[in-house]
Amino acid sequence: MLVNALSVDVEDWFQVGAFETTIARSDWDGLEHRVEANTDRVLALFDASGVKGTFFILGWVADRYPALIRRIADAGHEVASHGWDHQRVFTMGPEQFRADLAAAKAALEDAGGTRVTGYRAPSFSIDTRTPWAHIVLAEEGYCYSSSIAPIRHDHYGWADAPRRAFRPVEGAPLVELPITIAAVMGREITTGGGFFRLLPNRVTDRAVRGANAAARPAIFYFHPWEIDPGQPRVAGAPLKSKLRHYARLGAMAGKLERLIATHEWGRMDQIAAREAARLQ
């Protein structure tokens, strides 16, 4: 049985793309921080399930909660980068992106005591607008990225990108691991996040089995805030954003437990290494 990638994008409830036009970054430190407690709940869930995964963590979080990063690493999970403060890659230029990578990596490595070799762009924001992004990642020594959603979506997507691991920079060892796609009533969606919360588990189960049948590991993701139904509500956010963010938060932990029990899961770096060997 193939081992699939279990990944967690570690950011707090106020740092998500859905609220980026509603909550200013300058207000973040004054808001209630729940990322540490929620991530500890994820760690406990993984421990009870006997699985290891990859935590793509904001440098902003590592800077404020270094002990949390150490707990993740000490539990045998991979510490990887989610950038500094969830700024989408297509809003930056190459050098600003390089600086963002460097700041996040330094904070994560200082806190976790392990080398950071993996990266996921906030909101899967590497796409046709950022032809330089993978080049910068390769130059900065990253082994893999998991930053592409090969679909069309109003917030993200690179519909024409490959749907299995590939080398995005000729002559460089960097591997891109696109998020796995599921099909629902003729529409393509990502496996994870809000779609996973909203839809029956069988949708994701089918996508994982389909990827495995094609000899591909599935790549699944979620966020710690998604298992926190008690988080603050953002009154001024657009209705669509609120529906996306708050729907079925109370169901998420149970859904995750069932998904983890149904398939084989592991760390992204281990899967990236196997895919890199296949691509040689």
What is the 3D form?
globular
For the biggest sheet, the summary is: 5 strands, parallel
- Number of E-type strands: 10
The value of Rg in angstroms is 17 Å
> Fraction of residues in helices?
25-40%
Helix-strand category: alpha/beta
- Element-level helix/strand string: EHEHHEHEHEEEEHHEHHEH
Mean pLDDT: 96
Strand content: 5-15%
Account of the protein in words:
The protein has 280 residues and is α/β, with parallel strands linked by helices. The protein has ten helices and ten strands. Strands 1, 2, 3, 9 and 10 form a five-stranded parallel sheet that branches. Strands 4-5-6 form a three-stranded parallel sheet, covered by helices on one side. Helix 1 (35-49) links the parallel strand 1 and strand 2 (54-57). It is globular and about 50 Å long. The chain starts with a strand and ends with a helix.
